[in-house]
Amino acid sequence: MTPAPFDPSEIFTPAAPEFVADPYPAYARLRAAGRAHYNAPTDQWLIPHHADVRALLRDRRLGRTYLHRFTHEEFGRPAPPPEHEPFHVLNDNGMLDLEAPTHTRIRRLVAKAFTPRTVEELRPYVEDLADSLVRGLVADGGGDLAARVAEPLPVAVIAQMLGIPESDRPLLRPWSAAICGMYELNPSEETAARAVTASLEFSAYLRELIAARRAKPGDDLISGLIAAYEDGQSLSEQEMISTCVLLLNAGHEATVNATVNGWYALLRHPDQLAALRADPDRLVPTAVEELLRYDTPLQLFERWVLDETEIGGTVIPRGSELALLFGSANHDPAVFVRPGELDLARRDNPHVSFSAGIHYCIGAPLARVELAASMRALLRWAPALRLAGEPRRTPGFVIRGFRELCVEV
Q1: For the chain, what is the domain count?
Q2: Which residue has the higher pLDDT, 179 or 253?
């Protein structure tokens, strides 16, 4: 008897609350069933294996965009609705959604202002701020770890880097959250409308700030981006605006969710948390990497197929979209020993949470500093930290996190 065709949509159900709560069993079934699965509801090919995800992130037959080679019509894809244009102007000029040679030029210029020295110079500020936030949480006897520590730390750090005045910083998180809503699968028109409004407001704000830094440069990242220059080229105003928004969105959305996901995992694994508390100097560096792997804050990363590609004997035609399943790759038993177990001492940990290839996260070193700083502060000042009720997950699948994580100290 011929077996029934495998239908991934029966197990890959990103709109279902039970899938969002725990997608990892479904990933195991996808890996067991093969290397590439066409999923009709999202019109994507699902790629669940670590080796394929890691290789395809470096494969130049794929792209984050196709517009450097094809029009929408040539690629067989509809153009975005005109009313979404402000979002796409903002998003499509950031280096995350560009390909060479434009991506190469912008990344080199951004790297001149976003150096390892910049990150190291920020370390004392990050550690002091983490201590202050955690001590405030402890003084109140606990509260929402997301709102009190996980969110304000990376937002303040990126804002400090960009030179955004403290009085304006409350604007940033709502703008970012609205824009990032468009990265979910099949976003609604309401989500798109919020993203468009945030794109317009955020762009207008940054345009004014860039004008002020042109008139009076400082030692902030925006001034550095204005001054960045190579081979007769500098960043356009739109490229600067898009870069600043990308640095804020990518620089704190992932860190916020990695912090909250990580502490939820720790509090549900008391033996691992006890080991971490007993030997933080040894375990904090590997704990940061393991928590990024164990409950991945960005579950899916998309790529367009620019040239016909074969994956495990399946031919993927040009014009297709791949969904690289980071969460599945990070739980692949072909790479990770007992991947479903939290092991804070795990040394061999080639997770893909920061992506790979030319789009590897430029802010990864800063994210690691932030995650380690908040972890050390919580271990130091809240040694009896515990859950105060079951937290509520955010409804989205691609960006994985919690609405809140209430704790007691």
Answers
A1: 1
A2: 179
